[in-house]
Amino acid sequence: MRRTRFDHSPCPIARTTDLIGDWWTPMVLREAFLGRRRFDEFQQALDLSRGVLAQRLGRLVDEGLLEKRLYQERPPRHEYVLTEKGRAFYPVLAAMWRWGSDWLWEPGTGPAFELYDRDSGRPIRPRVVDEETGLPIDVRRVRVGSRRRDRPAGEPGGGAR
Amino acid sequence: MRRTRFDHSPCPIARTTDLIGDWWTPMVLREAFLGRRRFDEFQQALDLSRGVLAQRLGRLVDEGLLEKRLYQERPPRHEYVLTEKGRAFYPVLAAMWRWGSDWLWEPGTGPAFELYDRDSGRPIRPRVVDEETGLPIDVRRVRVGSRRRDRPAGEPGGGAR
User: Fold this and answer.
1) Chain B closest CA to A76's CA: distance in Å?
2) Architecture of domain A12-87 in this structure
3) Fewer beta carbons below 10 Å: N end or C end of chain A?
4) Per residue of chain A (161 residues), what is the pLDDT tens digit?
5) Residues spanned by CATH 1.10.10.10 within chain A?
6) Are the C-beta atoms of residues A155 and B119 closer than 8 Å to each other?
7) Inter-chain contact A126–B123, Cβ cutoff 8 Å?
């Protein structure tokens, strides 16, 4: 059964879902962010079938989040390296990390792991804010409206909602 | 074929994926954030099968992101209302919105929609930062380590990675 595709949706959330809604894909990206590059490294870390892993890596290459590079000629061996587009995805995983840590453990407990700043050693707690004001995003203050300017896709005028 | 479940994984990203990796679930949440509450409203907005929608809403209720409330007695009719846990998920969608907007449109174009602050009318651009410093999260500065303190799940000592 073919799933409904969202990759041409007008909504950025829908298009992103089309990519990471493939079961395993966020985990493949997580492992890439942990420094894995080779097929066997991903496979050992995730313990998933080689067929599924090959499909997920292939899609991430097709979508431009990973680049497939030859690191050995005989026999030919490739590694999968995050691109700028792929690295830019990390904040989405960081937001998932934060929400999961806060809400998906029993009250009074939490994951055994935390994010730390490599240099200072301080714990890092991801938070989603408005870039300009630095204030946390609160859905009750947000509306979705037509784009006003800046980009060719923009439409004049105010919001539809 | 049963999928591998991640809902008891030690990793918050994996647990979150177990929930939103269900195809359609991020879109159901998106519609809840847009103010939809009734089954038929979700169904009309998303144009998905009633069976799939019922399963997704049911799981979001089971997981505590939505609360099912009776709004009419005869015949009995329910609506689905975001809980605190559900509202707390919005930043994840906001991070997906930002990445999707930045990377999933052709160069020089972008989505026709933008997020706006309801009061000031200013565009809102979500960004994931470290809560304490306000600095953007950069994967190259982050490591995952054992939790040092604060929570019962914490382990003494430094990081494993």
Assistant:
1) 29
2) Orthogonal Bundle (1.10)
3) N
4) 567 888 889 899 999 998 888 889 999 999 999 999 999 999 999 999 999 999 999 999 999 999 999 999 999 999 999 999 999 999 999 999 999 999 999 988 899 999 999 999 999 999 999 999 999 998 889 999 998 865 444 333 333 32
5) 12-87
6) no
7) no
